[in-house]
């Protein structure tokens, strides 16, 4: 069976709730590998909810659908305040990247309580702003930024990562709507150890199976490179007697 599109590979999938310090309940899902503990954990931060972003935005949904089985990763997805998906609606209302600091803190508290190993932040678009603005405050192994627009993150907030040894991986589509590789190289030059990955032919929304596979491969290359190359076919285990 070819792995593509909406296919969902085997994993433990648990509907969860996160409690913020300002009294909100956020809805989400935790996907973990079957048969053993995860090698690392992806804490995902979705695109802009006022432009249709949510925990089911396709790259994050496909990460949760594939990477527990293919790369032995745990994947935590959740709706930030005021955001709705098939899972439900998180309490509160969109706060432009301010109150969402509490949402990220709630996710990281959940990671600690569950003992999930080696958390990495994976932000996409608006989610990259949250990772850059607030990620340094949390015990994460590194951050992976998909299509960062740098609309809400100040130059000072970017430069603050220069004094932090944790990896900063930046995937920039060649044809991004907001920040393309040459401009990204200038903006992220403030972080000498940042790894900028220009993606030929890529666009902000990473549409198409080739772009999905490229993004998931870059995520796994940072977090669990031993799992590469990611297979493109899946064989169901034989049925028991």
Strand percentage lies at 15-25%
Radius of gyration, whole Å: 17 Å
Record field, number of beta strands = 10
Give the H and E element order.
EEEHEEEHEHEHEHEH
Q: Give, in spatial order, the strands making up the sheet with the most strands.
A: 1-2-4-3-7-8-9-10
Level of helix content?
25-40%
* Continuous helix count: 6
How would you sum up the major sheet? 8 strands, mixed
Q: Estimate the global geometry from the Cα principal axes.
A: globular
Q: Poorly predicted ranges (pLDDT <50, ≥5 residues)?
A: none
Structural category: alpha/beta
Average of pLDDT:
97
How far apart are the first and last residues' alpha carbons, in Å? Answer: 23 Å
Structure description:
This protein is α/β, with parallel strands linked by helices and 241 residues long. It is built from six helices and ten strands; from the N terminus they run E-E-E-H-E-E-E-H-E-H-E-H-E-H-E-H. It has helices at residues 58-71, 100-114, 126-134, 155-159, 181-187, 209-223; strands at residues 12-19, 25-32, 40-45, 73-78, 84-85, 88-89, 119-124, 142-146, 168-173, 195-199. Helix 1 (58-71) links the parallel strand 3 (40-45) and strand 4 (73-78).
């Amino acid at each position: 069976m070819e792995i593509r599109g909406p296919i969902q590979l085997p994993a433990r999938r648990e509907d969860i709730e996160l409690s913020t310090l300002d009294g909100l309940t956020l809805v989400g899902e935790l996907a973990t590998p079957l048969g053993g503990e995860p090698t690392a954990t992806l804490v995902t931060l979705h695109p802009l909810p006022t432009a249709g972003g949510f925990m089911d935005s396709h790259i994050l949904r496909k990460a949760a659908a594939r990477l527990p089985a293919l790369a032995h990763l745990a994947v935590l997805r959740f709706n930030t305040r005021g955001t709705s998906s098939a899972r439900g609606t998180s309490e509160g209302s969109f706060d432009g990247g301010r109150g969402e600091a509490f949402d990220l803190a709630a996710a990281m508290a959940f990671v600690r309580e569950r003992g999930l190993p080696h958390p990495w932040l994976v932000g996409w678009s608006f989610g990259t702003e949250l990772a850059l603005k607030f990620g340094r405050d949390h015990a994460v192994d590194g951050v992976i930024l998909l299509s960062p627009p740098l609309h809400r993150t100040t130059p000072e907030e970017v430069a603050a990562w220069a004094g932090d040894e944790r990896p900063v991986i930046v995937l920039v589509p060649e044809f991004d709507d907001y920040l393309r590789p040459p401009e990204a190289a200038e903006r992220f030059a403030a972080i000498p150890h940042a790894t900028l990955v220009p993606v030929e032919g890529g666009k902000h929304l990473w549409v198409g199976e080739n772009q999905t596979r490229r993004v998931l491969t870059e995520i796994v290359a940072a977090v669990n490179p031993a799992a590469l190359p990611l297979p493109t076919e899946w064989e169901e285990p034989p049925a028991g007697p």
